[in-house]
Amino acid sequence: xxxxxQLHEYGGPEVLQYEDGPRPVLKxxxxxxxxxxxxxxxxxxxxxxxxxxxxxxxxxVIPFPIILGxxxxxxxxxxxxxxxxxxxxxxxxxxxxxPSFGDSKCYAE
Length: 109
Hints:
Elements: E1 2-6, E2 17-21, E3 31-38, H1 42-48, E4 71-79, E5 91-95
Antiparallel strand pairs: 1-2, 3-4, 4-5
């Protein structure tokens, strides 16, 4: 388990919940980063609000709960077997895949 800021429904800042969440399981080509800092960007609050600025037919289907965030910095904690160029303990920063609902866990420990 890890601590994470998660959404279980759309809404304002009050829907953000700091709670336990499942620790991500690595897939091929991925690294697990212990996030030390995460940026907040317009796509994060658009998504938190349910993407209301988009026509209904363009709004993404989100499997709740979801952890927002794309811009991160932290330390590599685990590396998938096929990843080259990263090692456990490397300090990193990244713009995690966006949109990538349910895969990236940025606002988390």
